[in-house]
Write a structure and sequence with these properties.
The complex is a heterodimer of chains A (about 140) and B (about 375). With about 140 residues, chain A is an alpha+beta fold. Chain A has one domain. Chain A is about 45% helix and about 30% strand. Chain A has 4 helices and 3 strands; from the N terminus they run H-H-E-E-E-H-H. A 3-stranded antiparallel β-sheet of chain A has the order 1-2-3. In chain A, a hairpin with a 3-residue loop joins strand 2 and strand 3. The longest helix of chain A is centred in the last third of the chain and has 31 residues. Chain B has about 375 residues and is of the alpha+beta class. The longest helix of chain B is centred in the C-terminal third of the chain and has 21 residues. Chain B has a 4-stranded antiparallel β-sheet with strand order 3-4-5-6. Among the domains of chain B are: about 70 residues, no CATH class; about 180 residues, no CATH class. The model of chain B has no long low-confidence stretch (mean pLDDT about 95). The chains are: A alpha+beta (about 140), B alpha+beta (about 375). The interface between A and B is large, with 51 and 81 residues.
Chain lengths: ~140, ~375
């Protein structure tokens, strides 16, 4: 679900259209935009407090075989949230799971890992290397 | 007192048309895109998200464009928009310990696990205007360095807590609801969860001034920046149908852990105390100010004398919201014709009475 939540629209739309062209997904809950109240923790690890809201879009679909998929993503992209629900429904079907993993989950996870490594590498380049100046009075 | 006044529709329509024209500015200059605001005025976007209390970069960028760059007006637009949407639920508390860090500094330890990561900062710039930016410029991609996968970035406060030298944060009490000032009006005294929610959406300028006032002696609390960290955290929300929390994506936040002078008692050894700041996007000045004010507002809890405005909960929390503040200040522009007429008549009566007492002929006031 993490991969479906963070996939780009094309990373869902392209494999779904290519591999499951005749998929008749039925909307159990049409895509809907709303809010989620984001919570922080007092002092970073204490009790929760309400930090502020974020937009979120959710959708629920059912595909042949009665497999239900839930899609929920930050932002306001109804079509993409529905695609996330479709991918989740396909993943529920054990016959399809391997293809969903190979064609959607793995590419998204790889991209996210590469982006995360890039971000860490950029941050690492700004790490301070301290060096201590030797004071004159010390004996050699 | 306000009186219903009709008329002015044409003037209002034309004023708004003129506003749209001024917003567009010189047609010979390219129109700015919302995507350009989102990407290139990112810190303005972050501020509108924080104080608008709504994380959505595109909406904040649109609001900035619509408001002609007036950030408080943009915050107002975002606040108004959020009232049109249903709320699906609450996130699990964000785990800032697991942040994908782009910046992380500490003023309390030079050498700490993970090191001092400067990230994209204005610090150490010379604050000289860069005229190269006035022309179109080629920007280099950021430098990169190899990453040690084994290296962790333990929170500085966790390091201090490891030696039991800092107070523990309050842990959730069973069944204790989390206060929400978007649902229930603020009442005093307010618990720390409500205070932090209020400060998180509070005006940066107001909190900066209050934080500064504590440093200048109006409620001094001896702060050290234990840590500032900026980066991305994952958001998860409980899906009731499924019975577990599902990931929704990531957001960028800034966290400031202020380490303040110690408190102890007969039963407890002295420990450093904490002030906490958290906000959307990269908002370091805001997070630091929030942490200073959070600590100042804990004066009563620590038995400190309350003598500065930053320590006065009712004063701080009632005046921190810039949408409320601008609403009440700007309402003075609305017609007050009848109030003013009443006061004018009163003034004339007082002057006439004074004149009679002094035995002078009534002034020939202009009617």
């Amino acid at each position: 679900m993490a991969a479906f939540a963070r996939a780009r629209t094309s990373e869902l739309a392209e494999p779904v259209a290519r591999l499951w062209p005749d998929l008749a997904a039925r909307d159990l809950r049409a895509p809907e935009i709303g809010l989620v109240m984001l919570r922080g923790r007092i002092g970073g690890d204490g009790a929760a407090f309400n930090l502020g809201e974020a937009t979120v879009t959710r959708a629920v679909v059912e595909i042949k075989g009665g497999y239900r998929g839930y899609g929920q993503r930050l932002g306001r992209e109804p079509a993409t949230a529905r695609l996330a629900a479709v991918a989740d429904a396909l993943w529920q079907n054990e016959q399809e799971r391997a293809r969903v993993e190979a064609e959607i989950v793995t590419p998204v996870t790889r991209r996210l890992a590469a982006e995360s490594l890039q971000a860490k590498s950029e941050a690492a380049a700004t790490k301070v290397d301290f060096f201590t100046l030797v004071r004159g009075e010390s004996e050699p | 007192m306000y009186v219903a006044v009709k008329g002015g529709e044409r003037a209002i329509a034309n004023a708004h048309r003129m506003l749209a024209d001024k917003r567009r500015g010189d047609r010979a200059v390219d129109e700015i895109g919302v995507d350009q605001i989102r990407e290139q005025l990112a810190l303005a976007v972050d501020r509108v998200m924080s104080e608008g209390s709504l994380y959505d970069r595109d909406l904040a960028a649109l609001a900035i464009k619509q408001a002609r760059g007036d950030l408080i007006e943009a915050i107002f637009l975002v606040r108004a928009y959020r009232t049109t949407l249903p709320r699906f639920g609450f996130s699990e508390p964000l785990e800032t310990a697991d942040m994908l860090i782009s910046r992380r500094i500490s003023a309390t330890y030079k050498d700490l696990p993970g090191g001092q990561i400067l990230g994209p900062t204005f610090d150490y710039t010379h604050r000289l205007l860069d005229f190269a930016l006035a022309a179109e410029s080629e920007t280099m991609p950021p430098a990169t360095s190899p990453v040690d996968p084994a290296e962790t970035m333990t929170r500085v406060t966790d390091i201090i807590a490891g030696e039991d030298l800092i107070e523990n944060n309050p842990q959730p009490a069973d069944g204790q609801p989390v206060g929400d000032l978007t649902r229930d009006p603020l009442a005093f005294p307010a618990d720390r969860d409500l205070r932090l929610q209020n400060l998180a959406r509070g005006d940066e300028g107001f909190l900066l001034a209050l934080g500064y006032s504590t440093q200048r002696g109006y409620g001094r609390n001896h702060p050290f920046v234990g840590e500032i960290r900026v980066g991305e955290v994952e958001v998860e929300m409980l899906i009731p149908d499924l019975g577990f929390a599902a990931p929704l994506g990531v957001i960028a936040v800034t966290e400031c852990q202020m380490v303040n002078q110690f408190k102890g008692s007969k039963t407890e050894p002295p420990r450093f105390t904490r002030g906490y700041g958290l906000g959307f996007g990269h908002c370091e000045r805001k997070a630091m100010s929030m942490a200073l004010v959070d600590r100042a507002l804990r004066a009563q809890e620590f038995g400190e004398e309350r003598k500065g405005p930053a320590q006065d909960e009712e004063f701080v929390l009632s005046h921190s919201d810039n949408v409320q503040a601008t609403g009440f200040v700007e309402h003075l522009k609305l017609p007050h014709y009848v109030d003013f007429q009443a006061e004018t008549s009163m003034l004339r009566l007082m002057r006439a009475a004074n004149a009679r007492q002094a035995g002078l002929p009534p002034a020939e006031a202009a009617e």
